[in-house]
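Morning - zinc ion inputs below, output right after.
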Amino acid sequence: MNCSTFMKKLDDFIEGSVSNDLKKAMEEHIESCPNCRELYEEEKNINEMLKLTLDVEHIEFKSSRGEIMKSIDKNRYSKNLFKKMYYHFKKYSIPYTSCVALIVFLLVISPWAMKKFNPNVISGSNKQSQKSLKKEGSYSLNKENKMDTKLSSVEKPTVFLDENYQFQKEKGKVPSFNTSWRNSPNGKLSVCIEGIGPYAQEEGIGSIVIKDNDKNELWQYNIINNKKQFTPKQVEWLDNENILIIIGFGHGTVTKGGNLYILNLNSNKNYIVYDTKDLKKEIMKIEIIKKDGTTELKLPMNIYEDDNYMKSHVENLTIHDFKVIFDK
Ligand SMILES: [Zn+2]
C-alpha cells in the first residue's frame, strides 16, 4: 500500500466500508507510515466529533458523513472549528435543537459567506461557475462525486472558481533538482518546478520557482498547509503574468496528474481552472494553443476504470476560447 492509495481510501476505511483485505493493508500502512497515521487520527477525530455533535436528541440526519464532509471544505475550515463547536455545546448546553439549527445554518451559509468575504474570488458570468463556487475542497475524498460535465470538445470557457490552495511566496534558491526553465512570452521571467526531478515525476513535494531574468532574482512558491501532500506537476505560461499548473498527489505511483490551477504572479492569487471532481480522473498535461486571438487548452486526462487503480485510458478535454477574467 502506498500513501496515495491510502488517502484515496481513507474515508471508506473510517466508514468501515472497505473489504477485509484492504482493511488489513491499510492498518499495516497506518503502523508503518507516520504521515498517514496522523491524517488518519485527524479524520477519525473529525468523524467522532461530527457524530457527537450531530447525534443529539435522537434527531436523525439523513445526510451521511460523506455528504456532510462534502459540504465542508476541510482545508479551509479549521478542524478546530468542530472541536470548538463541540466544547461549546458541552459547556453551555445550548438547547440541542438550536445547535442543530446553527450547524445547518453554517453549512448552508458557508459557501455564500466565503464568497462574500473573500474579495479575491473571481465570479464568473455563466451558470457553471456559480455552481462550482459551492464545490469547495475539490479534492474531497469522495468517489461518488461524479463529474457532471461531459468530456467533449465543446467545453465553454472556464472562469475561476475558488482558491483551494494558498501558495506562499518567498525568496528562492538556485534550484538543483528541477525541470528545465521555461521563458514567459516576453522573456522577462522564467519558471521551473524544483524538488521532484527533471520531469517532475519523482515522489515528493515540489515548489514553483520563478526567475526574474532582468534583476536576476529568484522567487519560490510553496503550497502551504499542505497536509494532503499535493505538489505541482506541470507548469506552463498562459501569458506574461499567469501560469497554469497541474497540482496532484506528491506520493504514490498510481497518480499521473491532478487538477488544473492558475497562479497570477502579480497578485499571487491562485484559482482552480478545472476540477475533475473525481480522484480517478487526472489531467496529465497542459497544451496551450493560441490562434486568431483565442486560446484553447488541450488537457489529456487519465481515467482509471477500476477501484484498484490498475486499468486506465486517456480522454481528451478541450477548453475552447479560454479567457482570464479578473473581477475588479
Ligand atoms: Zn503513508
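Note: The CA atoms of residues 304 and 310 lie 7 Å apart.

O.
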